Amino acid sequence: MKLLIILHHRFELWNAPEWFTARLRSDFPELEVVHLTSYDQVASELPDAGIAVTWSLRPEQFALARKLRWIHSPAAAVHLLMFPELIDSDVVLTNARGVHGPVVAEHVLALIFALAKKIPGAVRLQQKHTWGQEMLWKETPRPREVAGATLGLIGLGSIGREVAREAAAVGMRVIAVRESLAKGKPENVQEVYSPQQLDQLLQQSDFIVLAAPVTAATQGMINAERFAQMNADAYLINVGRGPLVDEAALIHALSNCKIAGAALDVFTEEPLPAISPLWDLPNLLITPHSAGLTEKLWERHYSLLSDNLRRFLAGQPLLCQVDKKRGY
Predict the structure, then answer these.
(1) Considering only the top CATH level, what class is 100-286?
(2) What is the model's pTM?
């Protein structure tokens, strides 16, 4: 059976290293492992591939893959693969949500502390050689303690659950929205609300963290109406995907101090264009989709993929399967 790896990205870390392919060939000699670093040969390599590791496929490319049984995405988000032909097919789809959870949760915690302790403002004062103790104190909202603050978590997947664990460890009260209340209340979460009760979560939260997938229901979910539900001293953090937030509404909310501030790691358009007004908002902290960056990334990818390959070859259920109808 052919295992086809199709990964091509402008950012080096998102591309599988050479050792990754070499180790697969060594550990799974029964597989023909083909690694493409561009899409130039996709049309000739897809027709006899049984397994594909890729960020995305177009419907016309998927139509060529007549022997395909399983697609694995090295991303947590799989919206680029959510087209009807794949959704309605028997092809199994898995993602890498377990790979990114721990490191993204650390990034979220770093952003919470940076916002609470007004670190971006202190850095700007340092660049001006200004001793700004009194200035930082008089600005609203003032520096605050994280312990005892309420974290409103939207999304309880692998990233969300890890965020809840780390936030609870520093004394935060964690409340969350999840699509299915039947799944219960996970450890470290005090209250769980349905998507229809999102406003109740927003009204209580000091920090709101978006860790939800992009679906028809979640696209643009944080809009002008939602910002109106937030407290004036609340902060928004997005490590999910850019389309979860109406960026025009966010710009208005931040410019008019409807909320205290925000931290974004993801954007509707990436890289964020130099002309975007988001760059110039003093109460917005921008990180360049760097929450998942770690030297351990591809080791973690290999651990998950190799485990699933053994399961696949043994006819066992795969880890991190995506519900294609739901999109996550």
Answers:
(1) alpha beta
(2) 0.94
